[in-house]
Design a protein that fits this description.
Blueprint lengths: L7 H8 L1 H34 L5 E4 L4 E3 L4 E6 L6 E7 L5 E7 L4 E6 L8 E9 L2 E2 L6 E6 L6 E5 L3 E3 L4 E7 L5 E6 L2 E7 L1 E3 L2 E8 L8 E8 L14 E6 L7 H40 L4 H8 L3 H8 L2 H19 L6 E4 L4 E3 L4 E6 L6 E7 L5 E7 L4 E6 L8 E9 L2 E2 L6 E6 L6 E5 L3 E3 L5 E6 L5 E6 L2 E7 L1 E3 L2 E6 L9 E8 L14 E6 L6 H9 L6 H50 L1
Parallel strand pairs: 2-9, 11-18, 20-27, 29-36
Antiparallel strand pairs: 1-3, 3-6, 4-5, 4-7, 7-8, 7-9, 10-12, 12-16, 13-14, 13-17, 15-16, 17-18, 19-21, 21-24, 22-23, 22-25, 25-26, 25-27, 28-30, 30-34, 31-32, 31-35, 33-34, 35-36
């Protein structure tokens, strides 16, 4: 020890090297462990918070609110929540926050007397012992009635036959650049406007309406810079489509019931006359039977061969004449089933492909006919002789000549059936494809503004937008540089997730389309649950299906006809059975008198 620690300096260094190092090491170790514990705690809390159920936000009476009304926003979270927060996203990037302390699974935020300040995007989330939940799906609250209402008109008319073209024209005096079209309280499409006189106009074209377009329409207008501040709704426009093939047989059944009534009256008159004639004929026999015996009485009433014939067969001739038109009317009432026509792989056919049109009719059909409606009003007819319920018409290598409206009907032993519902066969690929782009991006969050822009270098005046192989909207276009373009969707939600394409065509040839654009995949983050009010509207909407009611009426009419037919037959038989008794007595008496002569 003396050697290694000879001096005071060395002694100090030998005695206290480890304690000083050890103290510093312990301090760092404790600090590191504390930091690690805090990080783990925060991580665990974050992971636990991520497992909290996501809240949902909805407007009690729908997200379309007239100015001045009170709207209630319902935020549904977790049973363990102790505070709910409602956030309105403002235009400057800031949020207007409203907190409500409560315990429960749902809370109501009331917005009394809404104005343009309340229009916008809303979220809600809640606080849990583990932390804050993630925000709900965005709710777009639209305030209406802030501007003068536009006008809505149907061209050529609001009452059209199925298969005809109709244009719904929305017009405003202001300079709003967007219109929204609603049907029965639900948005169906929206489109950009173009200048028209002192205002703006948008046209929503339906090339071939069906009964599914029946309903009440309204339109709104707004400026794209304020997509949640809308005008007042237009006056309601009721579109009535007479669907000749669907389940509304009002006119047909009216004709049938009228004919059934006439047949009932005819049978009733004949039955009454026959009953009266039977009663009138009985007193004559009774008057002759009292003073004479039966043989002489019968001899007086049927003295000649002519009278004998009249006595033996008074009713059969009348009945035969009556039953012939009766059977004719009954066969006429039994209408042939209407055929149906469809394209095997869809009615959108690329040029050069082969398409098969299937016409389904009746098992007793012996000939089917396919008609293409041409522009000159004359049909192109193709007949196919066959026996069976269905036949296939093949159109190989389709061109623009095959595009158009098709019908089919069939021949039966009773005659020709009525034509099927019209089938619109569209031939694509006849012009260069347009371009489709998403602005600002094809990957967006729900609630953001997105524009799907379809553009072509040609001068087609209509575009059609398809999503996942189904048409969702179409609209008229505006000039853009050396071509035309159309814009769709100012705001999106997760229901717009999918693959989009667009086509272009001229309104003068609505079934001759361009090639499809390159597919555009739109990805919208988030899942948007369907609102209860939309589900209630869908379930509460009743279609005008009179099938069961008319079936009951026709069945009752048929039973009455059968009953009257049975009564008439029994009356005729009873009359025939009563006559031979007389004839057996007349013949011997007649022979006896002839022998005496």
């Amino acid at each position: 020890m003396d050697t290694s620690c000879a001096s005071d300096q060395l002694l100090v260094n030998c005695q206290f090297p480890l304690p000083s190092v050890t103290g510093t090491t312990m301090t760092l170790t404790l600090f590191f462990l504390l930091y690690l514990g805090l990080c783990l705690d925060q991580m665990m809390r974050t992971q636990a918070a991520d497992k909290l159920p996501r809240p949902s936000l909805r407007a009690e009476d729908g997200s379309l609110v007239p100015q001045g009304r009170t709207v209630t926003l319902r935020c549904r979270g977790s049973q363990e929540a102790d505070l709910y927060r409602l956030e309105q996203k403002l235009g400057n990037g800031m949020s207007d926050i409203t907190d409500m302390t409560t315990v429960g699974i749902e809370v109501n935020f009331s917005l009394p007397f809404v104005t343009w300040n309340h229009a916008g995007t809303y979220y809600c989330h809640y606080r849990h012992s583990l932390g804050w939940s993630e925000p709900s799906e965005p709710l777009q609250l639209v305030v209406t009635g802030l501007y003068e209402e536009p006008s809505l008109a149907a061209l050529p008319s609001s009452e059209v036959a199925s298969g005809q073209a109709v244009t719904l024209q929305c017009q405003t005096r202001g300079w709003h650049d967007w219109f929204v079209l609603y049907k029965d309280g639900e948005e169906i499409t929206r489109g950009i406007t173009h200048c028209h006189g002192r205002g703006r106009i948008a046209k929503f074209f339906f090339p071939a309406v069906t009964s599914s377009q029946n309903g009440t329409y309204r339109c709104y207008s707004f400026q794209s810079t304020f997509p949640n501040q809308w005008s007042s709704p237009s006056a309601p426009l009721v579109l009535r489509v007479s669907d000749r093939a669907a389940l509304d047989y009002t006119m047909g059944n009216l004709v049938r019931l009228t004919l059934a009534g006439l047949v009932l009256i005819l049978l009733g008159v004949l039955l009454t006359e026959n009953w009266k004639s039977s009663r009138e004929s009985l007193p004559e026999h009774s008057d002759q039977i009292i003073p004479q015996d039966r043989e002489s009485a019968l001899d007086t009433s049927c003295a000649s061969d002519q009278l004998l014939v009249n006595c033996q067969f008074p009713l059969p001739s009348v009945t035969g004449t009556t039953m012939t038109p009766t059977l004719f009317f009954l066969r006429y009432l039994d209408r042939l089933p209407r055929p149906s026509l469809r394209a095997e792989d869809g009615s959108l056919v690329p040029q050069g492909r082969t398409v098969t049109l299937r016409c389904r009719g009746s098992q007793e059909a012996d000939l089917y006919r396919l008609e293409q409606k041409l522009g000159n009003g004359m049909p192109e007819v193709t007949d196919m002789t066959t026996v069976g319920i269905e036949v296939n018409f093949s159109l190989p290598f389709v061109t623009w000549n095959h595009a158009g409206t098709y019908y089919c009907h069939y021949r039966h032993s009773l005659g020709w059936s009525e034509p099927s519902e019209p089938l619109q066969l569209v031939v694509t690929g006849l012009y260069k494809e347009p371009s489709l782009a998403a602005l600002p991006s094809s990957e967006v969050a729900s609630g953001q503004n997105v524009t799907l822009q379809c553009q072509t270098r040609g001068w087609h005046d209509w575009f059609v937008l398809y999503k996942d192989g189904e048409e969702i909207t179409r609209g008229m276009k505006e000039s853009h540089g050396r071509g035309r373009q159309a814009d769709f969707f100012p705001a999106v939600n997760s229901s717009q997730d999918g693959t989009y394409r667009c086509y272009s065509f001229r309104s003068s040839s609505p079934n001759v389309w361009s090639a499809p654009s390159v597919p555009l995949v739109l990805r919208v983050s988030g899942t948007f649950p369907p609102s209860p009010e939309s589900e209630n509207r869908l379930s509460g909407r009743a279609a005008l299906d009179y099938t069961m009611g008319n079936l009951v009426r026709l069945t009752l009419a048929g039973l009455v006809l059968i009953l009257l037919g049975v009564l008439l037959t029994e009356n005729w038989k009873s009359s025939r059975e009563s006559l031979p008794e007389h004839s057996d007595q007349i013949i011997p008496q007649d022979r006896g008198e002839r022998r005496k002569e």
